[in-house]
Design goal:
mainly alpha, 9 helices, disordered C terminus
Amino acid sequence: MVKRQLTYESALARAASLCSRGEHAEAEMRRKLRQWGAETGDADRVVEWLVDNGFIDNSRYAHAFVYDKSRFDLWGRVKIRHQLRLNGVTGDVVEEAMAEIDEDEYVANLRTLLAAKSRTLTVADPYKRKASLMRYGASRGYEPSLVLKVMAGIVDGAEDFCDDGIEEAD
């Protein structure tokens, strides 16, 4: 089956409609336009028009993405930064958006995730439990050093954390 080519006008209408419903990055929109059948030149013109008219703003997208992924999906900084790069957002825009993550909330999210995962583990061996929790924390995008610090309190059964929410690892 031959894919139908999308005209500039229909590509623009479809992309503007999509962008009016949610934030999208420039690179992400270029990919979508090519998937829809728009020619590369038309896709570039559409994205340029969307940027010029405020439909697409990588900074706005990065801030919304970081907020959503850190608050609702409980992703760590590593995973968020990686996904932003995959979506074509780089440099100072990423770092500026990442700076908005509240450190106390970030640590509390990790503590909640690791505590929930720890309750589901059936392995009795403490080394295997720690390894499993470490892998889980890393898969969620949290920094290994932070995972170790938070994990020390959960695995050892310590309920009291320091004022900053992190207990020092041995």
